[in-house]
Amino acid sequence: MVIDAKAERLRNLPLFKGADEEAIEHLASAADEVTVKAGHTLISQGRHHQEMYVLESGAAAVEIDGRLVAEVTGGEFVGELGYFTREPASATVRTVDECRLLVIPYNRFAQILDDNPKMVRAIVAELAQRLQAIDDKLKTMRA
Asked: Distance between CA atoms of 8 and 24, rounded to whole angstroms?
């Protein structure tokens, strides 16, 4: 079954570890599988978006004001900050090569998070690690 395959892939992502089985199944049913070509813009800096993306394969460039700041690859996610902040995107995310993605609409994601505090804790931990990495990078740039 397609949902079972998506659930298995989601279950293996660090972002969703600790989530209970029911939450993973709901997330799998909420996610759409898509494949996009290289050069496709997933997120545009300064615009509001209504979904987050899990890259299953391929890579995407993250740019701020046209400057490359990061690259995300299979198993990583983008667009999650827009869900939490409800602010316009702080970066543009464009595929570097063909990417297979899971697209999770914010409204469905909200329902799942409301019902699963373990998943919320896992996401907060992942975001905290990202923030720490950015802080460490800034410290080295100042030195």
From this structure: 8
